[in-house]
Amino acid sequence: MDVKQVANERLSWLKWKNIAPLREKLDALDEIDSIHDIGDVIKISGDILDSEKEQIDSLLYDLKPWRKGPFEIFGTFIDTEWNSSIKYNLLERYFDLSNKCVADVGCNNGYYMFRMLKQNPKHIVGFDPSPHYKTQFDFLNCFIKSDIVYELLGIEHIEFYHRKFDVIFCLGVLYHRSDPIKSLKSLKKSLNKNGVLFLDSFIIDGDDHVALTPKKTYSKIPNVYFIPTVVTLINWCKRAGFKNVELLNIKKTDLNEQRHTKWLKGDSLESFLDPNDPNLTIEGYPAPKRAYIKALI
Ligand SMILES: C[S@@+](CC[C@H](N)C(=O)[O-])C[C@H]1O[C@@H](n2cnc3c(N)ncnc32)[C@H](O)[C@@H]1O
After folding, report:
1. Mutate to test the pocket of ligand 1, among 87, 176, 186, 197 (most ligand atoms within 8 A of CB)
2. Which long-range contacts (C-beta less than 8 Å, at least 24 apart) are formed by 88-97?
3. pLDDT at 271
């Protein structure tokens, strides 16, 4: 598969009628001197004119929904649906990215990739087929000015990519794949010798080697295929060829981590759960809980 060609062809997605007006506004932004501070909140600041502030706020509004963050952009706090610092901070203690080639598969607007810059990796490549999230990334990066490469490619392309990686993050993606072991095999093929995969997935409780297949939606999310027990998730990794698979953490999603804010369009966790029993989703399945895994080849 010629993924360079696929990635190039997909740049035309930035001309879709819902994306093109965002790109035009982005291209029309003045060159602005700014500084940034990368922490739990990614902050971009600087002295700007009122007219520039209006231009930026208007684009921030048009770029909704903002799911991953939070960000503070010239004084405007983007209180994203997810407090992504919780997941990032949970994982950060387990990795050292200095001088490493890193991939973030399902990178969304790049929140984690911007956080990773602090560890001085050699390269960071984000894979996500969403032109909307790429546009959020491009907006943020026009101030942060990093060398991060954002490819409009999916997990299904990574094994054909021209570069292999020392560390791959694949967070919140596996349950969207109808063939999770095939996806894990392809992540394994994309790792260099001594490479490491950081993975998270929804899980269900239990010790059996089984996975839940939602009838239609899970927590109102439409394209969720398999939600394994932890032993099943570990077994998937082993069957994909990973040698050393370690469970790092298990965490239930709570309203501190995911909730409706004004920067979202539509519902969030509050309305994804059974109003009479927060331990169940609206469909009657166990409420969202994730396992975090480190897998070595
Ligand atoms: C549930 S979000 C997870 C975002 C982030 N990784 C996190 O853990 O917070 C899933 C992301 O995967 C992206 N995505 C959709 N299809 C994909 C694919 N085929 N390969 C990789 N990412 C994909 C979506 O655009 C979205 O940004």
Report:
1. 176
2. 88/112, 88/115, 89/40, 90/248, 90/249, 90/251, 90/292, 91/169, 91/198, 91/248, 91/292, 94/198, 94/248, 94/294, 95/119, 95/167, 95/196, 95/198, 97/121, 97/167
3. 84
Per-residue buried b or exposed e for 1-22, using 16+ beta carbons within 10 Å of the residue's own CB: eebeebbeebeeebeeeebeeb
Whether 26 and 142 have beta carbons less than 8 Å apart is answered as yes
Query: What does residue 38 show for φ and ψ, rounded to 5 degrees?
Result: -100, 110
pLDDT in tens, 27-72: 999 889 999 999 999 999 999 999 999 999 999 999 999 999 999 9
Q: What is the dihedral of CA 11, 17, 22, 28, to 10 degrees?
A: 90
Domain 3-296, CATH 3.30.530.20 — does that match?
no
Q: Would you give the DSSP letter of residue 156?
A: G
Cβ of residue 68 lying under 6 Å from some atom of ligand 1: yes
Residue 228: cis peptide before it, omega within 30 degrees of 0 = no
**Does the pTM of the predicted model rise above 0.70?**
yes
Say which residue the tokens 């405007």 belong to.
Answer: 76
Does the Cβ of 133 fall within 6 Å of ligand 1? Answer: yes
In whole angstroms, give the CA distance from residue 86 to residue 160. Answer: 32
Q: Report the SS3 class of residue 286.
A: strand
Of the given ranges (188-192, 219-223, 270-274), which has the lowest mean pLDDT? 270-274
Q: Which atom of ligand 1 is nearest to the CA of 84?
A: 9
Q: Provide CB contacts within 8 A for 276, sequence distance 6+.
A: none
Which amino acid type is present at position 23?
A: R
Report the relative pairing of strands 191-202 and 244-252 from DSSP bridges.
unpaired
Neighbouring residues of 38: CB distance < 8 A, sequence distance ≥ 6? 114, 115, 117, 118
Which two structure tokens, joined as six digits, stand for 64? 């909704």
